[in-house]
Amino acid sequence: MGKVLKIREVGDPILSQVSKEVDVKNINHEILDTIDDLKETLNFGTGLGISAPQIGVNKRIIVVGAKKENINYNDAVEIPIAAMINPSWKKLSNDVDIQFEGCMSVPSIRGKVERYKSIELTYYNEKGEKIIKQINGFFARLVQHECDHLDGIVFLEKVKGPNGFSTKENIIKYDLRKTDDIEKYMRNINKDLKKYIETNIFPQYEKNNIGGHGIDHIKYVIKRSFEIISEFNLEVDSNIVYTVAAYHDLGYKIEPENHEIVSSKLFKEDKNIRKFFNESQIDIIADAITDHRASLKYEARNIYGKIVSSADRNISVDTTLKRSILYYITKYGKENSKIDNIINDSFNKLSKKYGKGGYAKMYYPDKKYIEFNTAMNDLIENKDEFIRKEKEIIKSLD
Questions:
Q1: What pLDDT is attached to residue 133?
Q2: Burial annotation 247-269 (CB, 10 A radius, 16+ → b, else e)
Q3: What are the angstrom distances between the C-alpha of 394 and each of 11, 223, 387?
Q4: Which of 21, 51, 80, 352 has the fewest beta carbons under 10 Å from its own?
Q5: What are the structural domain ranges in the chain?
Q6: What are the backbone angles phi and psi of residue 3, rounded to the nearest 5°?
């Protein structure tokens, strides 16, 4: 039976050394004892893989093995424990994925690392038998990480991006793995489409900041759309999602009360958009834009309408109150706006929308929305607190 050994941490010289190959024709008790120690040490901790250098042994040996409940990766799969002697790999495609990684040799710190999604893995087992297999996703990431250790590389050297590092606690606190998913979806958007919308559509929202329907809100809806897609594992076209969210409030400056219809019309009249979508897709996007309203009398006609409708719902109580106030200030005109009238109308509107049995549609109620809706319900039940909060917000606008 193996021993639980101390993990060597970053800065230890052995972690920067290239490990020596094992003579697979002579797998002796020393090698087998090292494997047993690796298995026991891995099993004792919460890691998903371990390499010989991490327990102070300069040999090309790794052990991987993960129970589903211990894996915090987006494409997690359970992996039976296995020892790999002289492992090597080659990519099967150029497809890559960026996710946060951790390491037992780097306690508490996590970093975004780019890895190949699919690889061909070659190694020898404890009996000296050569194994070749194709592996994907999280398993492929894990093997690449552990093989780096054998070449004297710690994952910190491969971290990507200006915000590539985080503590383990903050990944959980701020749901940063979901942010990884959003970035993945955004990378799938046609670059020319994205450039066209950013250059020609987004600037139109500068004249559209009525009741909180400006560019900040559009970017929020885009982000929330991909959060919802990630949480509910929805299979959709990222280009369509992005376009629906980008156009959905475009008509607000023209006709606020029917802005969804105007926005849909403006989208269909945009001849340049036909460079990116066929007629069937154009109809899907137009219907989705029309169907995003919370007060819609019927169910949204397609999945894209349901996604953007859900993403259009706010998940911040303060932002919801502020948007409602700005709407009524704009409606009455700043000079004629009476605070009591604004607050009373705002309370009535939000009660009908978010109170018990409210009309706000939420096709995909994720965790963030459920928490928000509970808080809004509680606030609406306490009108005095509602009035106090809205007066604070109005004062901050002066």
A1: 96
A2: bbbbbbbeebeebbebbbbbbbe
A3: 54, 27, 10
A4: 80
A5: 13-166, 176-397
A6: -110, 150
Has this prediction a pTM greater than 0.70?
Answer: no
Q: Per-block average pLDDT, block size 10, for the chain (398 residues)?
A: 94 97 97 97 89 98 79 67 97 89 93 94 97 94 97 95 84 68 77 95 81 84 90 89 96 91 97 96 97 90 95 89 85 70 91 84 87 91 94 85
Contacts of residue 378, Cβ cutoff 8 Å, sequence gap at least 6: none
**CATH number of the 13-166 domain:** 3.90.45.10
Look at residue 90 in the predicted model and tell me its pLDDT: 97
Contact (CB, 8 A) for 8 and 14: yes
284 neighbors 307 (Cβ within 8 angstroms): no
Q: Where are the alpha helices (DSSP H) in 232-316?
A: 238-247, 259-269, 279-290, 303-311
Element at 330 (helix H, strand E): helix 317-332
Alpha-carbon gap, residue 354 to 365, rounded angstroms: 13
Question: 């609406």: which residue's tokens?
Answer: 380
Is the CATH code 1.10.3210.10 the one for domain 176-397? yes
Q: For this structure, is 385 an active site residue?
A: no
